[in-house]
Amino acid sequence: xxxxxxxxxxxxxxxxxxxxxxxxxxxxxxxxxxxxxxxxxxxxxxxxxxxxxxxxxxxxxxxxxxxxxxxxxxxxxxxxxxxxxxxxxxxxxxxxxxxxxxxxxxxxxxxxxxxxxxxxxxxxxxxxxxxxxxxxxxxxxxxxxxxxxxxxxxxxxxxxxxxxxxxxxxxxxxxxxxxxxxxxxxxxxxxxxxxxxxxxxxxxxxxxxxxxxxxxxxxxxxxxxxxxxxxxxxxxxxxxxxxxxxxxxxxxxxxxxxxxxxxxxxxxxxxxxxxxxxxxxxxxxxxxxxxxxxxxxxxxxxxxxxx
Length: 307
Ligand SMILES: Cc1cc2nc3c(=O)[nH]c(=O)nc-3n(C[C@H](O)[C@H](O)[C@H](O)COP(=O)(O)OP(=O)(O)OC[C@H]3O[C@@H](n4cnc5c(N)ncnc54)[C@H](O)[C@@H]3O)c2cc1C
Fold this sequence. Notes:
The chain is α/β, with parallel strands linked by helices. It folds into 2 domains: 2-112 and 239-304, FAD/NAD(P)-binding domain (3-Layer(bba) Sandwich); 120-236, FAD/NAD(P)-binding domain, CATH 3.50.50. 25% of the residues lie in helices and 27% in strands. The strands form 5 sheets. Strands 1, 2, 3, 4, 5, 6 and 19 form a 7-stranded mixed beta sheet that branches. The chain has a 5-stranded parallel beta sheet with strand order 7-16-8-9-12, with helices on one face. Helix 1 (12-23) packs parallel to helix 8. It is globular and about 55 Å long. It starts with a strand and ends with a helix. The protein binds flavin-adenine dinucleotide. Flavin-adenine dinucleotide binds next to helix 1, helix 2 and helix 8.
């Protein structure tokens, strides 16, 4: 089945885009964390959202959730690792398989961590952003998982089912400092289970990744206190840089180049929210989500008329 629009991101921008498109009776899929953006949930009190003075982040997220449900919009809780433009449609690689859509709205927020030196050079040549997509390439091999978010723990465990050896470097927040015990992540034991009959716990490494080096393929993770020889490196962040998610996307610094219609240099690919630049604000993100959805509906209409 091909959707009309795939909206990627469950922050204010993506939620708003999904609502507007649904109200226009468009066949959409909304992809992102089911609990929605942590940037909504983490806000203690929000003072600048019109009509909702002093609402908490949780309160806003719950209100979004209620509105989505009332419109029959379900969040598809998965991560998109690549968006391929196929000309008249898009093919999205996700942790749960491929999804097709005639148009895409990127509402994935801003990437907070800079790339590691060497990372960009080895994307697709030993550097991956999705364990479930690429694990089989590293069957019986040695891999490192660099986790900038807790989601990386599950990815490390998943890889351990097929890879010979998994180094896991959790480099997020205070959990990282508390960690570093083999087999223990954030106070929880890494589950020792086996799906394929073979499972070795990921080895937790307390070190800071500094660089990725290699020859034709990445083969070394250089850390502050030593190196790890590996066949592949998985980097798990909340957000993937937009031009890595959608190859060929025109950027302006760390943001996607766009105009007042929220279109990009790629036909059928629209953007909204923090991904487009400052100011980083809920209401701006939601407003741009609305515009992006309406522009996408116009685009679909011209596509249907064969213009
Ligand atoms: C603690 C905190 C408090 C804040 N307080 C305020 C405030 O009071 N007022 C205000 O106006 N602004 C505030 N902000 C800023 C505000 O959070 C952001 O401007 C806003 O969330 C941006 O919305 P967005 O939808 O563009 O992106 P985000 O909210 O960042 O949402 C992006 C979504 O995309 C998802 N995603 C990313 N990549 C993928 C992928 N590859 N596949 C699937 N899903 C993906 C993410 O998981 C997330 O759900 C605050 C921010 C923080 C961190």
